[in-house]
Amino acid sequence: MELVKQAKADGAGRAACCQVLEVSLRTLERWEKDPEMGDQRRGPDTVCAHALSETEKQAIVAVSNSRAYRDLSPWQIVAQLADQGRYLGSQSSFYRVLRQNDLVSHREKSKPHVHSRPKDLLARNPNEVWSWDITYLNSAIRGMYYYLYLVEDIFSRMIVGWTVEEVESAEHSARLIERACQEHGILRGQLALHADNGAPMTGATLLATVERLGVAPSFSRPSVSDDNPYSESLFKTLKYRPCYPESAFSGIDQARGWVSRFVQWYNTEHLHSAIRFVTPGSRHFGLDKAILTKRSAVYENAKRLNPRRWSRHTRNWSPITEVYLNPKKATMKIQGEISIHPSCGQKVSQQRPKTSAVSRSIEQNSNVSEVRPKNGFHSCPITNDQHSGKGYLRDKNQLSEDLPQSSPRSSISRFKETMDYPSLENLP
How many CB atoms neighbour CB 70 within 10 A? Predict the structure, then answer.
């Protein structure tokens, strides 16, 4: 309490003191009211009846430090003691006692394992952070697959590049990334590219390509799919569509045709739940703000006409301003600008330097994932054509252009022309 009093005398508030002490405000108030109240936690103060005694703990330490056992692990020590007819404790007890005495350390010649996390990335605009991955597409031959390479912009969730190949290779990855960067006009130092630790992502050809393009690579931890959540979520959306073929693709041309139609639908028609139910294409090209403003006005008007149905505020239709990739668990409360958390839509206090996405780091907790609407599957507007690479949109009754095999479009201008956004005047 003396430290708290000194901190308050220096100008610190109660909330700041509680944050440093990691206690609640109510706990601090109880301490101030009765400093001599002692430990108020419920439960008996007795010691567990079958806990190791101090003599037994000292015996474990002595045996572990003896010349015969000091180079062995507790697992081996326990086994050898059992061969001699002795039992001092389990291997867990050995580890616990040794840890309490600071006797557990890395003793092998190899480097100790380090629990590291990938670099934290923050995107405030399109083409700042891309995420990409590869998934399997079943072929007609058992044991053989086609490989879908898919690149997604995490800010807009738009698919910015794709290709379907018969093999996984860093060469295909390098050509895809270079083509996508050229189509979107990526400048040096502008983009961070995140992927997992697979061979096609870490190959020398791809790394040389991204270095030449001035793109900063970012990688997930080995065997941790959660480090690349946006690509994993996109693959689930793709493979759980009602129109996804139940049988295998008969050939690579059929697979490319289906993916081409999916990309067209996903970018221009799919209302994405993580970006306030606007299409990824509209968000990528800055059209989402007008759409969300229209929706917000509709809700405010409904509240004004019947205020009793609205106990608090209306639905949050404000645009998502910041999207995070692999944030740290620790949350720092920094006074600054107010932003919207991407997963829950709540206001979060943030203060960030205006730097490129390559050098940004974040400390805001997040759990971002693709959420399927509660009312079930959407009706799929894409008709699957088993015999050609073209498809038609049932709702629009028009043919879609035959797109290149290795990209969802040949140029940005062509893609903009194919996008058919609803008029703001016709919105409900």
Answer: 12
Asked if 149 contacts 168 with a C-beta cutoff of 8 angstroms, the reply is no
Instruction: Please give the structure tokens belonging to residue 213.
Output: 């393009």
Residue keyed to tokens 């879908």 = 148
130 Cβ contact partners less than 8 Å away, ≥ 6 residues apart: 151, 152, 153, 154, 160, 180, 191, 192, 193, 194
Q: Could you read off the pLDDT of 276-286 as tens digits, one per residue?
A: 999 999 999 99
What tokens were used for 126? 């399109």
Neighbours of 287 (CB within 10 A): 16
Q: Give the whole-angstrom CA distance, residue 357 versus residue 304.
A: 41
- Strands (E) in 184-291, as ranges, are 192-195, 216-219
Residue 146 forms beta bridges with which residues? 137
pLDDT digits (tens, 9 = 90+) for 96-119: 999 999 998 877 788 887 777 778
Q: What tokens does 137 get?
A: 């597409």
Query: For the whole model, what pTM was predicted?
Result: 0.60
**Domain 116-428 grouped into CATH 3.30.70.1230:** no
Q: Where are the domains of the chain?
A: 2-33, 54-100, 116-428
Pairing of strands 129-138, 192-195: parallel
Burial code (b: 16+ CB inside 10 Å, e: under 16) for 16-27 equals: ebbeeeeeeeee
The 3-state DSSP class for residue 107 equals: coil
